[in-house]
Amino acid sequence: xxxxxxxxxxxxxLAAASCETPYRMVTTLERNGKVQREVYAFENGAFMKRNTxxxxxxxxxxxxxxxxxxxxxxxxxxxxxxxxxxxxxGKNAKSIEQYSKEIQCDKDKQSYAAPEESLxxxxxxxxxxxxxxxxxxxxxxxxxxxxDDYLSKKEQILxxxxxxxxxxxxxxxxxxxxxxxxxxxxxxxxxxxxxxxSFESIRKMAIGYELDTAKETIYEKIRETDExxxxxxxxxxxxxxxxxxxxxxxxxxxxxxxxxxxxxxxEYPFLEHIFNTISYELVIPGQLTKTNAxxxxxxxxxxxxxxxxxxxxxxxxxxxxxxxxxxxxxVSGVVILIAVGSLGFLFFSTRRISPRPKx
Length: 359
Description:
Layout: H1 6-17, E1 22-29, E2 35-42, E3 48-49, E4 52-53, E5 66-78, E6 81-93, H2 97-102, H3 110-113, E7 116-123, E8 127-136, H4 153-161, H5 172-205, H6 215-225, H7 233-244, H8 248-255, H9 257-260, H10 264-267, H11 270-273, E9 277-283, E10 287-291, E11 295-297, E12 300-306, E13 315-324, H12 326-353
Helix pairs in contact: 6-7, 7-8
């Protein structure tokens, strides 16, 4: 059986043709629970125009966001690529939950622009512990064929989110072999969906033919001869002609060429946003105790968030840290000193008032 690579090639073409939108979002948590946030837009963002700036952010700017346009672009290492920030917006909030509640954006940008954020505080005497969590929701879309028919849950999360918790015992060769298999199955899944969409369009137009009975045969024939044309209505019609010994489908295609033309971004609108990439940076005020952040720079935790990571499941960012309660140490120290002093005072007082034995 041939390995289907067309889907990843199509994705690469879409990545080049569509407007990739990089963002840098810096969230600074303060000890008193307040939060500062800055969002940077780069010069090759999806809404950039030459020498102008029009809607460079994923959300609507309300008056409480302070907008700054840089006179000179600021260079930034964006996951190994040099990007140039040309503007930023900033906003202070009483809690991190406030941001997602107040964000206004288009529905198709909801997954990126308004994640569910929370910061839970648990008081302990010497330390206050904080649990941070941000959930970027899975992209909303409907496809004819589910990824569950091709990849297991652990394969899905490895492929899109890089979660290797189920693969820790593997060496490089074993990992390569597994990834190669996942690559083939992922590509086949996308190709199958492209085929299903094109085939369904033809089926709706065809009169006098029960095409569902021939679908699997047509799919396999195209895979064997011209796998790159699995999403092509013209190729499907040609193979249908051969299968039914007719010219009906070629004529059908010629008569409805414009209608049957496939546009991946129209059929699968989520692909338009799949290359939006966010550098989510969290600055914490205390001592880090646990996190799933792949990058840590001093007191800053960094996650890469993009559409691929949201393709099959929610993407969860988490961190736990603790902040020392200085006043608790001082109070405890004072209490200890008072206790020791009181015990000493009682001890010496007891010795002074104790009756001496008669000689």
